[in-house]
């Protein structure tokens, strides 16, 4: 069992929820020029128009039903025309358009599309200025088309803000001028075209700072922008199309989006989802329980490790690291689970108080160990050699998270004077966050947007990972023991000492699900996401069991008995949906998989004293 957080200094009292900033600001990436709500899907190659989107005369001899299996026939037809064009079947798309009488886009919409993709900003703004908002034009559009009386045929969706659309166009124009090193004209656009719109002062300040960039690479990095020859114009068109009525301009890749939603819905409702590949469209998706990791297939000997507090797979799933109450941090190769001298870190006297936590670098070449002797260390995971021992803190080092680029990492400690510090990969301190709360656990989103810290009392702190500004706090009413952010960077999983795991939407700050069944007390027990498509939540428990819940449904899927003492946590192999590792106070690490793999491992010859042994050979 990993001891609960303790500190020689006095603890901080609990507090209520104290938001910092609005929900809107929490959903926007700092210093970013692209609105994440509009996505970055690669758009279709076709930019040719197919005439008016109004009904027209059909080139068929008999009238067809108004609906297609309950769906609007015109909507289905236009979506099919777009999909055929996207896939390169242009002749087929034109044939369907001619036979059905339904057209994909009006000439005005096609001209607007071309203007944006070709960088004809004057023409694009001219067409935008002639647009009207749906429901506000003088004419009445058809069922799926538009009326010529409604401006020039560019019909905006209700609630669209034409000022914001102008801002996006002029912003792209400004950036492309800077890319061409035409600073004088870029400055004129900033002063005379962007600033008078009085939109988003923060972005205007960022755009102003870009004038000082010394190179195109610096510009692209600071602006999070890939240039006129990259995907920036295509992404701009996607942003703009989200404001245009789909009756005249379909969202990019609409059929692909709908099909992906169908697949995701089936995955979300698959109780035992283990398929790593995308489901087929030919049949409904369902996975059999026999493929789910419910069997202990291996037990890794403790090798003097004593209590094991944490296990973590490498990002590529090829290795498994473990730490605990003794002086050993072990790394196992997951194909054979043979332990070799080059993959075992024997810390000897340095970690006399045990290793509380470990963190793989993004490229899996380094491992940071967080020790209760108040030190953190950086290790080479291939040779097992120590790269650097960081300066001593006044209190134990409790957690570590790496930046997505692998260039730096953040340590969390119980030292209230230095509770959060950023170091580079060489171990040199870069930034002190100057936060007054202690840190028991940390988690960071893959996009760098979120950094969440849990103190040793009852509060979690949600930071902007790029600006280090506190966005809001949440008082949970009980001690949080672990944190994990989902791969989609939207959900936060918090394990709590009151025997509850809570799934929180980071943007809306609302609770999505609460998971119950596992037992917790005053010791650190970890939960995390895992499985195919990260469909599950897995946690240890005081009673030695491992609990698995379905993330989308919120229901308990399995309660698996495998340890005789407290199960301190479990982790899912990110590259293998059918492999879980769990650890406990009893020592041996359990490897879980499905029935077929259990039989496979049973028939393997036993390993040496440093390697794996089948469960049947463990006394």
Automatic annotation (TrEMBL):
This is CTLH domain-containing protein. Pfam families: LisH_WDR26, WD40. Residues 1-57 are annotated as: Disordered. It comes from the Eukaryota. Residues 105-185 form the CTLH domain. Gene3D superfamilies: YVTN repeat-like/Quinoprotein amine dehydrogenase. Keywords: Repeat, WD repeat. One of its GO terms (biological process) is proteasome-mediated ubiquitin-dependent protein catabolic process. PANTHER family: WD REPEAT PROTEIN 26-RELATED (PTHR22838), WD REPEAT-CONTAINING PROTEIN 26 (PTHR22838:SF0). One of its GO terms (cellular component) is GID complex. WD repeats lie at residues 348-389, 560-593. Residues 1-17, 42-57 have a biased composition (Low complexity). InterPro entries: CTLH_C, WD40/YVTN_repeat-like_dom_sf, WD40_repeat_dom_sf, WD40_rpt, WD_repeat-ST_regulator.
């Amino acid at each position: 069992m990993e001891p609960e957080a303790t500190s020689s200094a006095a603890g901080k009292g609990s507090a209520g929820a104290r938001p910092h900033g609005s929900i809107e600001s929490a959903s926007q990436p700092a210093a970013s020029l692209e609105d994440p709500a509009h996505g970055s899907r690669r758009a279709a190659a076709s930019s040719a128009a197919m005439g008016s989107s109004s009904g027209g005369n059909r080139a068929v001899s008999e009238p067809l039903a108004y609906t297609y299996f309950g769906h609007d026939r015109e909507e289905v037809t236009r979506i099919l025309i777009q999909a055929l064009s996207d896939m390169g079947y242009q002749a087929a798309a034109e044939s369907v358009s001619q036979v059905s009488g339904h057209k994909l886009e009006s000439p005005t919409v096609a001209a607007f599309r071309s203007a944006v993709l070709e960088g004809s900003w004057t023409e694009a703004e001219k067409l935008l200025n002639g647009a009207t908002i749906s429901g506000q034009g003088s004419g009445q559009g058809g069922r799926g088309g538009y009326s010529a009386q409604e401006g020039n045929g560019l019909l905006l969706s209700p609630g669209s803000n034409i000022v914001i659309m102008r801002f996006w166009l002029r912003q792209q124009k400004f950036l492309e001028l800077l890319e061409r090193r035409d600073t004088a004209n870029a400055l004129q656009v900033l002063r005379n075209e962007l600033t008078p719109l009085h939109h988003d002062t923060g972005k205007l300040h960022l755009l102003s700072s870009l004038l000082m960039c010394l190179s195109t690479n610096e510009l692209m990095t600071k602006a999070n922008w890939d240039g006129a020859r990259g995907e920036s114009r295509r992404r701009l068109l996607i942003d703009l199309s989200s404001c245009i009525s789909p009756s005249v301009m379909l969202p990019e890749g609409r059929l692909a989006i709908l099909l992906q939603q169908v697949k995701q819905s089936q995955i979300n409702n698959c109780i035992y989802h283990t398929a790593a590949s995308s489901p087929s469209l030919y049949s409904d998706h369902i996975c059999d329980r026999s493929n789910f990791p419910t069997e202990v297939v291996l037990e890794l000997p403790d090798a003097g490790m004593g209590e094991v507090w944490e296990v973590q797979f490498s990002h590529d799933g090829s290795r498994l690291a473990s730490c605990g109450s003794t002086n050993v941090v072990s790394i196992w190769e997951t194909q054979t689970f043979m332990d070799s001298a080059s993959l075992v870190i024997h810390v000897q006297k340095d970690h006399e108080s045990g290793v509380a936590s470990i963190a793989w670098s993004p490229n899996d070449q380094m491992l940071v160990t967080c020790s209760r002797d108040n030190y953190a260390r950086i290790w080479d995971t291939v040779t097992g050699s120590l790269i650097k021992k960081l300066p001593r803190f006044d209190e134990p080092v409790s957690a570590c998270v790496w930046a997505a680029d692998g260039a730096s990492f953040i340590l969390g400690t119980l030292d209230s004077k230095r509770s959060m510090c950023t170091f580079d990969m060489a171990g040199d301190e870069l930034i002190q966050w100057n936060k007054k709360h202690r840190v028991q656990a940390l988690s960071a989103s893959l996009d760098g947007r979120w950094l969440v810290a849990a103190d040793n009392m009852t509060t979690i702190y949600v930071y902007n990972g790029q600006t280090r500004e506190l966005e809001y706090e949440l008082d949970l009413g009980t001690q949080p023991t672990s944190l994990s952010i989902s791969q989609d960077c939207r959900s936060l999983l918090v394990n709590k000492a009151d025997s509850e795991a809570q799934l929180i939407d980071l943007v809306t700050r609302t609770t999505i699900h609460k998971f119950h069944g596992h037992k917790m007390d005053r010791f650190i027990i970890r939960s995390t996401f895992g499985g195919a498509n990260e469909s599950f939540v897995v946690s240890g428990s005081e009673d030695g069991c491992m609990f698995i819940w379905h993330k989308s449904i919120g229901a308990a899927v399995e309660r698996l008995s495998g340890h005789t003492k407290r199960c301190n946590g479990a982790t899912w192999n990110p590259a293998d949906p059918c492999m879980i590792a769990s650890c406990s106070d009893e020592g041996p690490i359990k490897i879980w998989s499905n029935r077929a793999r259990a039989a496979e491992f049973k028939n393997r010859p036993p390993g040496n004293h440093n390697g794996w042994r089948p469960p049947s050979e463990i006394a």
